[in-house]
Amino acid sequence: MKIVGISGSNVGNKTRIAMDYTLNKAREEYPDAEITLLDLAEYDMVFSDGRNYWDYDGDTKYVTETIMGADAIIIGTPVFQASIAATLKNIFDLLPVNAFRDKVVSILITAGTPKHYLMAEQQLKPILSYMKAHIVPTYVFIEEKDFYRNEIVNDDILFRIERLVEDTVLLVDAYVKIREAKDAQYDF
Fold this sequence. Notes:
Rossmann fold, six-stranded parallel beta sheet, two-stranded antiparallel ribbon, FMN, EC 1.5.1.38
């Protein structure tokens, strides 16, 4: 199983801290999984210009092809101006409309205030649904107050992250079994 974590911003560190914790938990619990972190702050991404993702080169090609090769994607994004980060939106624009077909996608949000907790429901989930993702229904919302000295200090958040990882992997396994049963119905 290939799991790709996306730290969806090129500024700040809270989302990266949360993604590091999340992917470390995934590595502990699922040592056979191939787990990759794509921290968008570490890549030189170009803006989408309408080409197919495989026509780009450099970091843009690597990031998009890594996402397309994943079985599960854990998206971490901060809330900026009551919306997703522009760097994450650019990733969606670079990918084809069916990019997340047969992929499980889970969400982790970092925000300075609880006022934007519905951003995932009103903005991110519709985009992922349009791109054909199997979305893990619950997501983790982490506020500024849940961090102290670059660590997550809220035990409830830590538990929810662990549950998010588990739900993501279980959903991948469930959809694999569903696809296998569906494929077995055909004689060719």
